[in-house]
Design the sequence.
């Protein structure tokens, strides 16, 4: 990586001296960067329980510990310090206990188990010894029971053979990133009695149940699931209610699309849930709508269809008169609410920042998490539209870092479509026209927001102007905008990326002779598409991408999407589509851009074959190229040293060709 250091020296000619006690971001800051998640407000509303994922350089991974912060932010307590880490922590409804899932091994049981910690003091203790895979759990309202969501036990594993049994695939959806080859086992509900420790199975059969929610009276559980005749051939999901005493199940919704994530109103009269806009077999370009229905299946109301923006994290107000939720909208994620009497939708708080979690307090206030371009995610209380920060994760070390300035911009593509983006200007840059990196988000159905972006800040710290562009296919601009690329990959998106690049050149911010491009996942795929369209970019880093799309059929996890969106490759029309969207590979001889390909060895999302094929093509054509495969990694690179390595390689590759 000596070339990276050389590039830092070269780029310093047009960077100002940093303030005396600050420095630029560097790849090893991966070992400083923490993340915060899963906030839970205590029943009395005086404390917030949450998880902090911290880098452990010795173990080369992140580990999760539990913390509590008082509602006013004046007291913070760390609750756990274990090496195994804890997840899915919750307060018991009576406020006496904190529960969590831990992989700590006790009595030679391999599986993760449920643990209880008395808030009044004492050691945490394990309360389950299940052999099944414990996926999640949920307290009953009276704190006497816990619903366990567990995957059926594999009969082959009961015998504990010395040699693992052969992998047998009989499901249509037979591959899934991280999970690996998908078995035929289903997940069901089990009820744990806290006093006796006895566990009774509530649901059985050939279907999987998920997203459970107890009714306020503790007599029923709402859940979502796919109970169609052939659930693996579609993305359908409906809302059901099961009675605890009898196990009888009632189906509430019949939408051919997806109805999921039920939440009961506080009085138990309604269930709020998320419905897909469309009813396609595969809902890749869809966005969620808020809906409500009575527990008997009557009085269904679709609430936010006119908004034409995806909603999430919906929660009932204490009086059940309103539902609060998050909205993704053109580089922002804001908090909104709907009045259930009038149907009026009003923004609660927004701006050039990104809100995520949303939890209610018994006093009527709210807890949320928020990030902006200069501050990673932290927790805030929201009272009368006033935000108050109560956690300070990452603030100590980031206060010593000079960050790039982030500016929103809007460009036009050659067909006149308006596109939104973000531009990162390195701290202290004294010239306008900078070496430039267009770093593309994945998805494609996601969006770059006014939030803290560790990757683009890292690239900008190397002396590059960096852009994020919400090309067509992204969300935040309505369903039609997102679905416009359906079956036509690498066309409108590349047009939008090049239009944004032209805009930044005209602004005088970019040196058009020193431009690079890159991205991960669909960002890597679009990198391949773009360099096959133009030789304007002098360096590329394609992460977890693919180009010969015909060869991806059956080796990734998207079989339903291939069938619906592109077609069947053995049929003439389907084959023509596959070859059309495979043009980066079939026209590899047009590529002159030096390209670094990177991928996880065990990626089932966009398998390594996609990167390997493009590497082989460019190597054959004598185009400068390199292939980096991270051992035993999935679509996301989890090993910390590999994350550092990736950043160093980015800076080295771009530095070599964009000096």
Sequence:
């Amino acid at each position: 990586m000596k070339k990276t250091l050389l590039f830092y020296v070269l780029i310093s000619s047009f960077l100002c001296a940093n303030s005396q006690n600050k420095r630029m971001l560097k790849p090893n800051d991966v070992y400083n960067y923490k993340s915060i998640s899963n906030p839970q407000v205590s029943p009395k509303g005086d404390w917030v329980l949450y998880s902090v994922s911290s880098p452990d350089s010795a173990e080369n991974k992140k580990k999760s510990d539990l913390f509590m912060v008082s509602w006013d932010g004046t007291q913070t307590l760390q609750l756990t310090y274990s090496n195994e880490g804890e997840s899915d922590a919750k307060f018991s409804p009576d406020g006496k206990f904190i529960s969590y899932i831990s992989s700590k091994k006790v009595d030679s049981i391999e599986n993760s188990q449920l643990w209880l910690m008395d808030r009044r003091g004492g050691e945490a203790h394990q309360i389950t010894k299940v052999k099944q895979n414990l996926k999640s759990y949920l307290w009953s309202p009276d704190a006497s029971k816990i619903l366990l969501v567990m995957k059926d036990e594999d009969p082959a594993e009961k015998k504990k053979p010395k040699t693992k049994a052969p992998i047998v695939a009989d499901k249509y959806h037979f591959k899934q990133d991280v999970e690996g080859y998908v078995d035929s086992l289903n997940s069901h509900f089990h009820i744990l009695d806290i006093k006796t420790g006895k566990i009774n199975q509530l649901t059985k059969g050939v279907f999987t149940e998920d997203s459970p929610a107890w009714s306020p009276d503790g007599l029923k559980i709402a859940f979502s699931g796919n109970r169609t005749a052939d659930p693996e051939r579609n993305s359908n999901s409906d809302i059901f209610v099961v009675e605890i005493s009898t196990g009888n199940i009632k189906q509430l919704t019949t939408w051919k699309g997806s109805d999921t994530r039920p939440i009961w109103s506080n009085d138990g009269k309604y269930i709020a849930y998320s419905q897909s806009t469309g009813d396609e077999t595969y809902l890749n370009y869809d966005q969620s709508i808020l809906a409500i229905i009575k527990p008997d299946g009557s009085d269904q109301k679709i609430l936010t269809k006119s908004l034409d923006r995806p909603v999430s994290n919906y929660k009932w107000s204490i009086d059940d008169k309103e539902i609060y939720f998050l909205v993704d909208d053109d580089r922002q994620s804001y908090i909104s609410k709907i009045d259930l009497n009038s149907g009026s939708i009003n923004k609660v708080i927004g701006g050039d920042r990104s809100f995520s979690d949303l939890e209610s307090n018994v006093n009527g206030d709210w807890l949320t998490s928020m990030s902006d371009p200069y501050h990673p995610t932290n927790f805030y209380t929201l009272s009368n539209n006033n935000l108050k920060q109560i956690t300070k994760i990452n603030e100590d070390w980031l206060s010593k870092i000079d960050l790039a300035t982030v500016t929103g911009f809007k460009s036009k593509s050659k067909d006149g479509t308006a596109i939104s983006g973000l531009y990162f200007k390195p701290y202290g840059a004294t010239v306008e026209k900078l070496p430039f990196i267009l770093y593309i988000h994945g998805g494609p159905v996601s969006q770059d927001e006014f939030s803290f972006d560790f990757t683009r800040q890292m690239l900008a710290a190397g002396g590059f102007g960096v852009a994020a562009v919400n090309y067509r296919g992204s969300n935040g601009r309505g369903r039609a905008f997102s679905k416009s690329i359906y079956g036509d990959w690498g066309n409108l998106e590349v047009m939008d990326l090049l239009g944004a690049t032209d805009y930044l050149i005209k602004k005088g911010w970019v040196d058009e002779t020193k431009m690079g491009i890159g991205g991960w996942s669909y960002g890597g795929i679009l990198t391949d598409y773009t360099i096959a369209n133009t030789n304007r970019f002098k360096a590329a880093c394609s992460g977890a991408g693919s180009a010969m799309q015909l060869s991806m059929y059956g080796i990734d996890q998207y079989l339903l999407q291939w069938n619906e969106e592109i077609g069947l490759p053995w049929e003439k029309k389907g084959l023509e589509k596959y070859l059309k969207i495979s043009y980066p590979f079939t026209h590899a001889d047009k590529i002159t851009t030096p390209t670094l390909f990177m991928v996880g060895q065990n990626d089932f999302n966009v398998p390594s074959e996609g990167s390997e094929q493009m590497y082989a093509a460019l190597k054959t054509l004598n185009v400068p190229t390199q292939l980096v495969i991270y051992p035993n990694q999935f679509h996301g690179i989890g090993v910390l040293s590999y994350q550092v390595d990736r950043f160093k390689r980015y800076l080295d590759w771009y530095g070599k060709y964009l000096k």
User: Anything to note?
Assistant: Residues 1-18 have pLDDT under 50 and may be disordered. Residues 630 and 642 are 7 Å apart (CA to CA). The first strand starts at residue 23 and ends at 24. DSSP finds twelve helices and 40 strands in the chain.
